[in-house]
Write a structure and sequence with these properties.
This protein has one domain: TIM Barrel. It has 13 helices and 9 strands. Strands 1, 2, 3, 4, 5, 6, 7, 8 and 9 form a 9-stranded mixed β-sheet that branches. It is globular. It starts with a helix and ends with a helix. The model has no long low-confidence stretch (mean pLDDT about 95).
Length: about 270
């Protein structure tokens, strides 16, 4: 009975978050204002990496590295960016192929922010070919890497941006396989060939963060805790990952995304 109640509550929370929850963009502005009021400098991933090169002692001030993964809902991403522009906040935005918006990417880059690639070719090929084991995926790795290279080069050509920092997307198939998209870039020769200087999950980058936080579903909103706790404690380098979906409801986008994910899961399981 308890398990059934938990599942029902989870479903109801998801329905509320996807279709009925009021906009939290005002909360987002207040969050950024508190960051600024505590004297934190905000950086994109690219700026933080350029300033530290894997050694955070090079920084002279406390900073917050702000990253957006645009899994869905570019419209809300734009609203968040406009808030940041008004407050002088610098950040990173990583776009999936399904959310690429070239004019928006250029605007981010021209305003001293970072627009990058939120890639997922390992998961894409695994779903298309119904790969169910690590061994099957490894056999397909040359195909996966070729697809990644083609997509990255196409995005560079279309945007006119260097896009040499990338961020792996997470998909249900990654969790099933226990293989993550960043495994595409574990080959140093391939990484050099495609011109990727940093993957945001690289250890030299991750190890220079003193406190990591990600937004999450209603009603928790943050995991493992709100970044404001780390800010009030005076942590030196706070890393925050946010997703537009958790800050403003977009009924159409959420409905389409939910249906697509359900269909992908069904096809993969058959």
């Amino acid at each position: 009975m308890a398990m059934g109640t938990t599942i029902l509550r989870t479903i109801l929370n998801r329905i509320y978050a996807d279709f009925f929850m009021p906009s939290r963009l005002g909360v987002y502005r207040e969050f950024l204002e508190e960051i600024i009021s505590h004297g934190y400098k905000t950086y994109s991933v690219a700026t933080f990496w350029e300033k530290t090169k894997g050694d955070r002692t090079r920084l002279q001030e406390n900073c917050l590295v702000l990253r957006h993964d645009i899994d869905t809902d570019t419209g809300t991403a734009k609203a968040m960016w406009e808030i940041e522009q008004a407050l002088g906040v610098e950040s990173s935005y990583y776009f999936r192929l399904s959310t690429v918006d070239i004019p928006f990417m250029r605007a981010i880059a021209f305003s001293r922010g970072e627009a990058g690639y939120h890639y997922e070719e390992l998961a894409t090929v695994a779903k298309e070919k119904c790969l169910k084991t690590r061994e099957q995926v490894l056999r397909e790795m040359p195909c996966i890497r070729r697809l990644f290279q083609e997509n990255l080069n196409s995005l560079r050509e279309r945007s006119g941006l260097p896009i040499d920092i990338v961020a792996s997307h997470g998909d249900f198939v990654n969790r099933k396989l226990q293989m993550y998209n960043w495994e595409i870039l574990k080959n140093n020769a391939f990484r050099k060939e495609v011109g990727v200087k940093l993957e945001v999950y690289d250890e030299p980058f991750a190890s220079n963060v003193s406190s990591r936080h990600s937004d999450t579903d209603y009603p928790s909103f943050w995991r493992p805790e709100s970044p404001l706790g780390a800010i009030r404690r005076g942590e030196s380098v706070i890393y925050v990952l946010v997703h537009p979906r958790h800050w403003r409801t977009n009924h159409k986008v959420n409905f389409v995304d939910n249906v697509n994910r359900a269909l992908e899961g069904l096809r993969y399981s058959l």
